[in-house]
Each structure stands twice: as C-alpha cells, then as structure tokens.
C-alpha cells in the first residue's frame, strides 16, 4: 500500500500541517494562498515551514483553492484527504461570498481527490448550517455547506467538534490578511465524501421467453433500478435476506418447513378482485425485440403466471383511469395467488410453506410507502378448530425472532390485532393494500416509540384464513410480512430508499448473516421545495396515486413529500385547479439546488403529457 497523500489548504502559520508531519505512512502537502515571503512573517510560520521540509513534506505557496488541478501534475492529483480549516474570503465578506468560495473549492477538490478520499472543512460555530451547530443560525444566514458541497457531488458523511486544544502545537491565526484569530470554541469539522451518481433516466426493457415467442416489456420508470437486484439470493448479505433467513430458521423449529426459493413468475395475468387498478403496475408486452433489452434473471420458464399472450396498448392516462384490457399483464403486487394455488394442489397438512420475493404496488409518497418491497408469505394447513392456536404459534415465533434480532437490546412489543373495517383507513399503505386482496383476520404490529403506540409505519404484516380452498376438515392460514419494513425497524434505517441504494457503504455495514444498527453515510441532506399548479379537465377525477408514481419516476425517488396546498373550481368553466407542494431530498446521494430544479421542470412536462392536465 502506498503513502496516504494529505493536502492542506489555506494554512496560516502552518502549525496544523506541522502537527501532521511525521505521521507514519502519510505524505503531507501543505499550501497557503500567500507568497512565502508574506506567510513567513506570521508568528511561528518560519519554524513550522522548516519542520515540514525537514520531515519530507511539500510546502507550496500562492495556491488558489479554487484551481487546484493547476498546481499538481495528473500523477500527483490523487489526494486521500484534503483539509481546509476555517476558509474565509477575508475582511467582512458576507455569507453569500463565502458560499461561493466553498462552491468553487468543492468543485476544484473533486478534480484532485482520490475516489474514496475525504474532504475535511472546519467552520466556526453556526457557519455550517447543520443541526450540529449550537446555537443554529437561520438557514439563509448560514454558509449552507451541505447544499453547497452537493453541487460538486459530495455528501456530508461525518461531523464532529474541532478540538484545537488536542492538536499538538496548533495555533489558529485568522483571516489571511490579519493576525486576528478565528473563534474556535464550538467549531466543527465537516467530513465530506463522494456521492454515487444520480439515477440515469435511460429507459430499460426486459426480454422474456413466452412459449415459442420472445417478448419484451418496458420497465416502469420508477422501477428501473429495482428490477433483478437479487437481495434474496442465498449468498446475499443484504439485511432483508438476513431477516428472512433468521425468520425461517426460527419457524423451522416449530413446523416442518418447505422453503420455496424457486423463481416465481414476475408477471400476473387476469383480474385481482377488489384491487384498485391505479395501485397496479400495468405492463404491455410487445413481440418486437429491441437492442436495449436484457434477459430477466428470473428465467424464461417462470417469466409469467399464465401462458396465453394478449398484446394490448394503452396510455398512462387510460391506465390511471382504470381503462385496461382484461388480457393485460401486470407486475405481481402480492405472492398470495401463488400460495393459494400451491395449497390447492399437492401439499402436506401441518407443513409450513414459505414463499418470498419482491412485489410491486403503486402508492403515495411517504416515509414507509414502498412501490416495491420484499414479501415473505407463510402458508399453513391445519385442522379446523385449531386456527387460533396455529396463528398464535406463528406470531410467537415471529415475535421471538424479532426480539432476538433487535439491535437496541430493548425487546419491542409484537401485537396481534383483530382487523375491523374502521381500522383499515388508519393503516400504512402495505396493510391498506392487503385489505384489498381479501378479508384479513389479524394485523401484526410492532410497537414503536413511545411504547404501546401503533403508528402507521409499524404494521409489519397480516394474517388471513380460508376454509374454501381445501377440504372441509382443513383450514388454510396465510401470513404476509413486509421484510423491508421489518429490516428497517430492526436496524433503525429511517428511510426505505436506503435499502435500495447502489452505494457500497450500505452493505459494508452488514457482514454476511449479521444485522447491525445502521449508521448513515449521508448526514443532514438538504431539501428543496417547489410548487406546481395545474387545471384538471372538467368532470375528470384526478388520480393522486398516478401523480405520486410519476413524481417518483421522474425524480428517481428524490421526492419525499407531496402536499395539496390549494384547490378551487373556476366559475363558469367548471375546471378544477390543484396546487401541490413537492419536497425534494435524497437519503444517499448529492442533490443540489440546480438538480432539484431540473427534476421539477421535467415533472411539469411529464404530468402535462401523461396525466392530461394543463399547467398554470
């Protein structure tokens, strides 16, 4: 392994650089904006410069932090760490000029930083504008460092106090033209790392073999980065797979278990009674092959549930209205039909059948609403009259698994609540959709803080029973669990989108077969608010789920909130006007103000084109 290259910018008396020189395996490059003659006049600077040079460090003068690549040849631009302590334009420069300085600095740093390098920026208390500043300034009066860094593709990965007293020999000087030192009490060191790129919006198609035909379909835009992610593969270290493995291992101690990990069909065909069409991802199959298609990893033999092909056309607007063909295919919204079909065939009473895989549902945007998640469905056939005891055994084993996996050491309370029609309106989207699939006997809740409360996000699963699918002596029990939500609660992952991040720093926190409390690598991400207003055609019902789904797809899941701000009907025309407020925020990537504005413009174009509204 080569030397760790460290670049220091804006040094005053070079005392900070001198404290780092001599560290084993580190090569220090210390720079300042001033000339050597001017810098040497600072108290103690000449002594620190000699010490640096004697230790083999490089000392470079007259370096502009906004043009770093001009000072280093290409082979010497890969710095592992860049330090910039207390940057300032000098004199009485305001927050706007200092933001501009930081913006140019971050863009310049991106050109000389190693791929997995860090940028350290120390700021006085209050300047950064993060919740770590105490007291915290108003946003407009801060340097907005996280938002500024996002413009250059950086995310804030850590922040901690800048303890000047612990740095041997360090003495803070001040503005480059003054000897007045900065106030370092309460100062913070902000550590930035590179972000993975924002989602590419290139359309993606999947190709499948259907009988003797090769057919393809275009993946819905909101799902382009979520198809075939293989989270539940046997060698996966994703926390969703770990939760599933631990759950099935525990259940195998109470029941003979048959785990069905074979490739289940990704597409359904036909009607789902009671399910709202706007909650379904409808798919149009095409017999034409295109150069951009790629084989689905699910395998050609299991690509669809039924063999009959109906090629049908339709616009997003028609689908949003529910105008779909009975022969149209759709991405599976549930594993329940597969479990029901299996239990109607050959099965062993008393055996617990386990089915798992991703399912797809259109839903409104909220912290716990997922357009795709991994479902595990448990199916069991028992003797009539024993369903209550069988359900209790299932729930007890689920609860004991959750208790053993919970990372805080506090055992959460698992509640089994009987379902009533009045409750369904207060449930999260997972449970509300399950209610559309058929009658539910019980909801499975995991209590969250405060203890004893059942918030919308804590409904982990549902249990339903059936007496019609098998013989009169048996009863079928189906338990459906949301593995993604369970993994979030166990590992304290606050945002479901983090489960799908392509950033390798997420999976590095979860060694194979282990669950740990998640530590975010993107702290205090900035948010941006935009409004959009439009006219809805007279007599038409506006489909909010279609609007939310479109916002998800256009933004690459960067919209975290959509709120209706205003609604009125125009006299005379009968047209209705709606105004929505959208909040853009990323959980894992750098999202700049400009990037959010570009997403808003694309969304305005698409809602007019796909939803048939007229922009105001």
Explain this structure to me?
Residues 289-316 and 450-457 have low confidence and may be disordered. The protein is built from 14 helices and 24 strands. With 616 residues, the protein is of the alpha+beta class. The chain has three domains: 4-194, Vaccinia Virus protein VP39 (Rossmann fold); 204-288 and 327-508, BirA Bifunctional Protein, domain 2 (2-Layer Sandwich); 528-615, Alpha-Beta Plaits. The longest helix is centred in the middle third of the chain and has 19 residues, at 387-405. The protein starts with a strand and ends with a strand. The strands form five sheets. A seven-stranded mixed β-sheet has the order 3-2-1-4-5-7-6. A seven-stranded mixed β-sheet has the order 10-15-16-20-19-18-17, sandwiched between helices. It has helices spanning 15-20, 36-39, 45-54, 95-109, 145-150, 239-252, 316-320, 336-344, 387-405, 429-436, 483-491, 504-507, 544-555, 593-611; strands spanning 4-9, 26-31, 58-60, 79-85, 113-123, 154-161, 188-194, 205-210, 213-218, 257-260, 267-269, 282-283, 293-295, 329-331, 352-360, 372-383, 414-418, 442-446, 459-466, 474-482, 528-536, 559-569, 576-584, 614-615. 23% of the residues lie in helices and 25% in strands. Helix 4 links the parallel strand 4 and strand 5 (113-123). One of its GO terms (biological process) is rRNA base methylation. It holds the Pfam family BMT5-like. It comes from Tachuris rubrigastra. Its main location: mitochondrion. Its EC number is 6.1.1.20.
């Amino acid at each position: 392994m080569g030397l760790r290259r460290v670049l220091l910018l804006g040094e005053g008396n070079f005392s900070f650089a001198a404290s780092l020189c001599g560290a084993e395996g580190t090569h220090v490059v210390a720079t300042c904006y001033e000339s050597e003659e001017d810098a040497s006049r600072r108290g103690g600077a000449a002594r620190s410069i000699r010490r640096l040079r004697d230790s083999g460090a490089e000392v470079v003068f007259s370096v502009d932090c906004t043009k770093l690549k001009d000072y280093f040849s290409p082979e010497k631009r890969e710095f592992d760490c860049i330090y910039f302590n207390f940057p300032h334009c000098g004199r009485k420069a305001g927050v706007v000029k200092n933001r501009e300085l930081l913006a140019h600095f971050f863009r310049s740093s991106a050109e000389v930083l190693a791929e997995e390098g860090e940028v350290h920026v120390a700021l006085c208390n209050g300047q950064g504008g993060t919740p770590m500043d105490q007291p915290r300034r108003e946003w407009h009066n801060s340097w907005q460092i996280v938002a500024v860094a996002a413009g250059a593709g950086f995310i804030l990965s850590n922040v901690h106090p800048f303890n000047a007293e612990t740095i041997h020999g360090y003495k803070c000087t001040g503005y480059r033209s003054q000897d007045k030192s900065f106030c370092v009490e309460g100062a913070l060191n902000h550590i930035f790392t590179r972000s993975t790129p924002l989602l590419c919006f290139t359309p993606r198609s999947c190709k499948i073999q259907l009988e003797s035909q090769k057919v393809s379909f275009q993946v819905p835009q909101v799902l382009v980065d979520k198809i075939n992610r293989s989270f539940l593969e046997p060698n996966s270290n994703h926390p969703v797979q770990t939760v599933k493995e631990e759950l099935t291992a525990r259940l195998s101690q109470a029941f003979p278990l048959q785990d069905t990990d074979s490739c289940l069909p990704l597409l359904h065909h036909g009607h789902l009674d009671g399910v709202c069409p706007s909650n379904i991802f409808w798919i149009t199959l095409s017999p034409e092959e295109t150069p951009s298609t790629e084989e689905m990893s699910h395998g050609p033999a299991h690509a669809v549930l039924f063999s009959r092909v109906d090629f049908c056309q339709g616009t997003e607007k028609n689908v949003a209205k529910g105008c779909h063909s009975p022969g149209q295919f759709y991405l599976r919204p549930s594993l329940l039909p597969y479990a029901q079909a299996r239990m109607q065939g050959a099965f062993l009473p008393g055996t617990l059948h386990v089915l798992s895989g991703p399912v797809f549902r259109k839903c409104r945007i909220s912290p716990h609403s997922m357009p795709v998640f991994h479902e595990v469905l448990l199916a069991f056939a028992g003797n009539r009259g024993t369903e209550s005891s069988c359900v209790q055994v299932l729930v007890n084993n689920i609860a004991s698994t959750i208790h053993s996996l919970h990372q805080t050491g506090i055992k959460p309370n698992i509640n089994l609540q009987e379902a009533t029609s009045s409750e369904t309106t207060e449930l999260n989207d997972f449970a509300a959709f399950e209610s559309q699939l058929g009658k539910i006997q019980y909801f499975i809740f995991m209590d969250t803080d405060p203890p004893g409360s059942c918030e919308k996000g804590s409904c982990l699963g549902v249990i339903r029973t059936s007496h019609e699918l098998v013989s009169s002596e048996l009863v079928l029990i189906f338990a459906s669990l949301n593995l993604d939500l369970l993994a979030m609660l166990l590992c304290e992952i606050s945002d479901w989108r983090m489960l799908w991040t392509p950033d390798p720093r997420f999976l590095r926190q979860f060694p194979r077969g282990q669950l740990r409390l998640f530590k975010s690598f993107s702290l205090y991400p900035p948010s941006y608010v935009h409004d959009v207003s439009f006219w809805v055609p007279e007599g038409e019902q506006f489909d909010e789920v279609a609007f939310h789904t479109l916002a998800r797809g256009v933004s690459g899941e960067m919209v975290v909130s959509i709120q209706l701000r205003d609604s009125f009907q125009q006299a005379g025309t009968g047209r209705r006007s709606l105004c929505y407020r959208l909040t853009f925020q990323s959980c894992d990537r750098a999202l700049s103000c400009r990037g959010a504005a570009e997403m808003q413009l694309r969304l305005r174009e698409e809602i007019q084109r796909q939803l048939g509204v007229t922009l105001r």
